[in-house]
């Protein structure tokens, strides 16, 4: 299920529209993940405040969106672009890769909430495929 | 099967109360067919599903979307008994329609996204959590008669 030229064009165009709100998107997606899938809190037990929109959640949401932006810029070779992020997640953070799907779902929910008109079915399939590719690239170095 | 708090029951009823089945059903089913095109295999008799525009404009897709969403109404009205409520629907999907049960999870996720688009920011993380718990129970009940 690799990205076609059409998918890449759609992802870049859609990302250009939404990138201005990247931190809001990241903050909201992470907030939702922590509430809807409470098992994910295990990775953030060192934070003082895990509630929706808290300072550490907002900051980390921005960090995550930085990674997504990098993936958009590396869309012709996402694995190469995310190589060191993959190593980070595999060897230091040791995030179970099942969580990439969970976060992806919450990013899609936030895109629907914030951009109901632009997040049409064509944008949805392209972004779903793209986020799945990002998840695969992040999983590359795990074993 | 599942314990619902009063708060959860009223959240689910409130969300469902604001959903127009005739609008949301077609949108959700259409998106499933676009985002997960292999699901089109179940709808060979529906005519033109060759493009997103064809799918979203297809009257058979719309009609079937309304049927599927309408069945959710039974779950909302029988929250204490979803497993029993869906017994025969589950059997039909397993033994007659041969629908891969993973599709129930896929439809639930897409429906959540369509509802999020409709509700905007009022679809808060807490409401999303309760709604997804409800979807999880419905999906499990739909899969319950598969061996």
UniProtKB/TrEMBL annotation, chain A:
The keyword Lyase does not apply. PROSITE patterns: GLOBIN (PS01033). Gene3D superfamilies: Globins (1.10.490.10). It holds the Pfam family Globin. GO terms for molecular function: haptoglobin binding; heme binding; iron ion binding; organic acid binding; oxygen binding; oxygen carrier activity; peroxidase activity. Belongs to the globin family. PANTHER family: HEMOGLOBIN FAMILY MEMBER, HEMOGLOBIN SUBUNIT ZETA. This is Hemoglobin subunit alpha-1-like. It comes from Oncorhynchus kisutch (Coho salmon). The gene is LOC109898504.
UniProtKB/TrEMBL annotation, chain B:
One of its GO terms (molecular function) is haptoglobin binding. Residues 3-147 form the Globin domain. GO terms for biological process: hydrogen peroxide catabolic process. Coiled coil: none annotated. Keywords: Heme, Iron, Metal-binding, Oxygen transport, Transport. It holds the Pfam family Globin. InterPro entries: Globin (IPR000971), Globin-like_sf (IPR009050), Globin/Proto (IPR012292), Hemoglobin_b (IPR002337), Hemoglobin_oxygen_transport (IPR050056). CDD domains: Hb-beta-like. One of its GO terms (cellular component) is haptoglobin-hemoglobin complex. Belongs to the globin family. This is Hemoglobin, beta adult 2. It comes from Oncorhynchus kisutch. The gene is LOC109893409.
